[in-house]
Amino acid sequence: MHLRSLSALALAATLAACGGGGDNPAPTPPPTATDQLVATTVAGFPHAVNVYRTAGATRAIVLLHGGAGDLNAVAYQVGLNGSATTTSAASINWAWLHAHQVTLVVPQGQHIASNPGATTWSNHAMTSGQDDKAFLQALAAQVRSEYGLADITLMGHSMGGVMTNRMWCESAATFNRYVSLAGPASSAFGQPATPCAPGSAAPPYLGIIGDGDSVMQTAGAWDAATWTVNPAVVASSREAWVNAVVLGEFRQQQVRTALACGGTLDAAAFTSAGNVDTWQSCGGRLLLQRVRGADHGVASLDARMGTTSTTDVMDAVMAFVAAH
Questions:
Q1: Can you give the pLDDT at residue 11?
Q2: What whole-number distance in Å separates Cα of residue 38 and Cα of residue 248?
Q3: Are 136 and 174 in contact (CB under 8 A)?
């Protein structure tokens, strides 16, 4: 019972004991649940975390920004924050979050001391100077315990997507499903010493990437085993890079399919809708979408996926979440 209700009942009892007349006051109703922007942290880690706590949410999405990004801009890029530089309760797209019953959790990546502009994640491609695998494990546990949300999707763009791939390979049970936007797995997972090993219950994975991605250099190289990150991008934060070679998304999706269900994935086995080619495997639990004509940014993916909406990517993500 709420404290105000207890106070009202105590007052009524006192009046009765003193011979006070009249009807007992009506009980005070509990406060209405409201949406909240919560700024928080995880014990033992320096990362700031914004939680868009949506009243009535049944699931959460943890959203990771790309290299040199931040927690305000990435939420803006996916259409869930009206500002690229700040976040307030008034700037959040609560309508979309309510429609999908989602609480959004946006952590801030860190940087090594010698490269303060390289805010990123320790994902075998770049290093943030932090144990981001342990951080995300602790963050997931905190979201489940503090907000009562057992269903959590990990989603990342660019280097955030590379970190998402690391978690799928190394800590698959931490999240219920994984979504990567223009963020393939590091080529470290193509080496015998560091295999991608999600276990027998490999969770669902959705990859979305443009075939004209100028950062991952996908143009004309869709079937390549590896892609090399654009040298100009690497040069801007060279000290934070440990490996600028990533695995080609289609080739790695073939590996994921074998790991997740012992299946195979044929290069010609896709369906097309508009500018989007889709490969499905393992009963649809693994989905890869190639967006024809799209570059690296979320805005480019949105624009090529069909409409002028700023949430086309997020709508595709939620369709996947709802199905799996």
A1: 35
A2: 37
A3: yes
Task: State the Cα–Cα distance between residues 59 and 127, nearest whole angstrom.
Answer: 29
The yes-or-no verdict on residue 234 having pLDDT over 80 is yes
Beta bridge partners of 287: 206, 280
Task: Specify the pTM.
Answer: 0.90
Residue 307: the pLDDT is: 63
Average pLDDT of the residues of the chain: 92
E strand spans, the chain? 36-40, 49-53, 59-64, 102-107, 152-157, 177-181, 205-210, 226-228, 245-247, 270-273, 276-281, 286-291
Is CATH 2.120.10.30 what the domain over 33-323 is classified as, yes or no?
no
Edge-to-edge strands of the sheet including 152-157?
Answer: 36-40, 49-53, 102-107, 59-64, 152-157, 177-181, 205-210, 286-291, 276-281, 270-273
CA angle 152, 100, 311 (to 5 degrees): 100
